[in-house]
């Protein structure tokens, strides 16, 4: 269930502002580099907000969100969800002001990164590599490449400022000019000049990485705490997110990137992290399929599992899809094709990680431990349309799907036997031991119902044969009587 209405209403007003002048290159970067990551709807929201800025203006007129819904032809829930994508990837900052009667939002459009920043970014470069693949990634990067010019072959003849311009003589600056100049150079506290965004890039919650544990491990190597500057911490957060590096392992990597024990070489830190990942996971690029079910969509938060089914729910909610697949393979490496399936479920079908876990387990157990892409996409499309958000909802739908599948198989088998059940009165199920327990219960109930139906069918068939036999005997008796009379 979506709770967007607690945060946003159609009557809420909004104004669009830009943090910097947006140009044609920015639009090309958003279209070619950001759109594959955020999707067409979030991309459309960004362009729609951008279009509300008048030419050479940096503020828009105030509008209601109902206007935005009509412009884009989508629901308010869609706008709210896509807005969060823009915020998370650094293209939008949202500010809220609540008065007694109205609620107003300020949407501040952020310019996209430059192509150089984007492709050197530890997170987005890997993300888009996984989305597009190697060949398309290289082709896209080439569009933003320029040839390097060897300037050593040239002699620079550029004039400096003081070679062209001369300073005013002191006598030319009279008192009233000085006061006018001072007034002109000063700025109101209510205004600010446009600025070009720097390297602030993506924001990560520091709570997602245990810095204290890493610091405690570093202290044993007498590494000064001032080494962990804000830039170093942000780099650690990004590297830990992309390469799945735990705090203790990050401590070792950080020590290898130290310069004279009092400074961290950021480039060396990235290099060491990549080398560690390659040793641990081979040449396969890192994936974003390590997310777990969001807390607000969990049912087992601060609740101890009592039943077997609750334990399964807790497992699905706290395990990432990639980890689940690894466990189903006894720790073996997950094939890249299966990793792509997970990413498609998370990104294209927008299923939550816990829901993806249920879907993966269901298909694995029903398909002899193989991931059938066509079957997965068929079920994923159904679940996406049903807006499944919780593990419990997904398990319920999986049980319904299982029952329907078994019923179809039963009908097909009955057709082969001309309406008669098999000799033993029930279908043989060779996959029973491989099914998860939460589906075994469903199968037990289903088989019980099938046995009852089979017994009824057998009884019915026997009674019909008995009546037919009695009818034939009666006819034979009548023929014998007629023959005797003759």
Overview in brief:
By secondary structure, the protein is mostly helical. Helix content is 55%, strand content 5%.
How would you portray this structure in words?
Helix content is 55%, strand content 5%. Among the domains are: 4-113, Arc Repressor Mutant, subunit A (Orthogonal Bundle), CATH 1.10.10; 206-281. Helix 2 (40-51) crosses helix 4, helix 6 (124-132) packs across helix 7 (134-142) and helix 12 (247-256) crosses helix 13. It is built from 20 helices and six strands.
SS content category: mainly alpha
Strands side by side in the biggest sheet: 2-1-4-3
So what's the CATH class of the domain at 4-113? Mainly Alpha
Label the CATH architecture of the domain at 4-113: Orthogonal Bundle
Number of strands: 6
Unreliable runs? 172-178, 423-433
CATH topology of the domain at 4-113: Arc Repressor Mutant, subunit A
Order of helices and strands: EHHEHHEEHHHHHHHHEEHHHHHHHH
How many angstroms separate the termini? 86 Å
Question: Average pLDDT, to the nearest integer?
Answer: 78
- Please describe the biggest sheet, giving its number of strands, its sense, and whether it closes into a barrel: 4 strands, mixed
Helix content: 55-70%
Give the helix tally. 20
């Amino acid at each position: 269930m979506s709770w967007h209405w607690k945060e946003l209403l159609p009557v809420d007003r909004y104004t669009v502002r830009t943090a910097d002048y947006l140009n044609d290159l920015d639009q090309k970067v958003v279209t070619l580099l950001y759109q594959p990551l955020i999707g067409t709807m979030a991309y459309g929201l960004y362009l729609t907000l951008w279009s509300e800025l008048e030419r050479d203006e940096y503020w828009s007129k105030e509008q209601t969100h109902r206007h935005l819904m009509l412009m884009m032809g989508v629901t308010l829930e869609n706008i709210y969800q896509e807005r969060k994508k823009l915020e998370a990837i650094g293209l939008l900052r949202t500010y809220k002001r609540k008065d007694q009667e109205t609620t107003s939002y300020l949407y501040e459009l952020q310019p996209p990164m430059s192509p150089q920043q984007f492709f050197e970014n530890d997170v987005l470069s890997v993300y888009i590599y996984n989305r597009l693949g190697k060949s398309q990634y290289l082709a896209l990067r080439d569009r933003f490449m320029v040839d390097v010019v060897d300037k050593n072959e040239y002699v620079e003849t550029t004039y400096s400022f003081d070679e062209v311009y001369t300073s005013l003589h002191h006598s030319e600056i009279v008192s009233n000019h000085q006061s006018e100049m001072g007034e002109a150079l000063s700025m109101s506290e209510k205004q600010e000049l446009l600025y070009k965004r720097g390297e602030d890039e993506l924001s990560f919650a520091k709570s997602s990485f245990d810095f204290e544990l890493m610091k405690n491990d570093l202290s044993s190597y007498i590494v000064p705490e001032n080494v962990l500057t804000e830039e170093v911490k942000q780099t650690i957060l990004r590297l830990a997110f992309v390469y799945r590096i735990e705090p203790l392992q990050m401590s070792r990597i950080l020590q290898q990137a130290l310069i004279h024990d009092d400074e961290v070489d950021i480039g060396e830190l990235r290099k060491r992290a990549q080398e560690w990942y390659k040793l641990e996971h081979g040449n396969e690029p890192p994936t974003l399929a390590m997310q777990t079910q969001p807390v607000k969509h969990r049912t087992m938060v601060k609740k101890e599992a009592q039943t077997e089914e609750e334990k399964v729910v807790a497992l699905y909610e706290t395990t990432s899809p990639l980890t689940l697949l690894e466990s189903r393979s006894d720790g073996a490496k997950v094939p890249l094709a299966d990793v792509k399936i997970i990413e498609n479920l998370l990104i294209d079908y927008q299923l939550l990680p816990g829901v993806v876990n249920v879907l993966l387990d269901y298909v694995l157990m029903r398909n002899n431990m193989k991931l059938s892409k066509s079957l997965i996409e068929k079920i994923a499309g159904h679940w996406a349309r049903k807006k499944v958000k919780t593990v419990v909802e997904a398990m319920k739908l999986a049980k319904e799907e299982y029952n329907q599948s078994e019923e179809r198989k039963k009908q097909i088998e009955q057709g082969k036997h001309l309406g008669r059940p098999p000799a033993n009165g029930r279908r043989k199920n060779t996959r029973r031991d491989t099914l998860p327990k939460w589906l075994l219960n469903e199968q037990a109930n289903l088989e019980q119902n099938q046995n009852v139906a089979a017994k009824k069918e057998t009884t019915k068939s026997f009674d019909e044969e008995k009546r037919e036999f009695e009818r034939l005997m009666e006819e034979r008796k009548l023929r014998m009587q007629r023959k005797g009379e003759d």
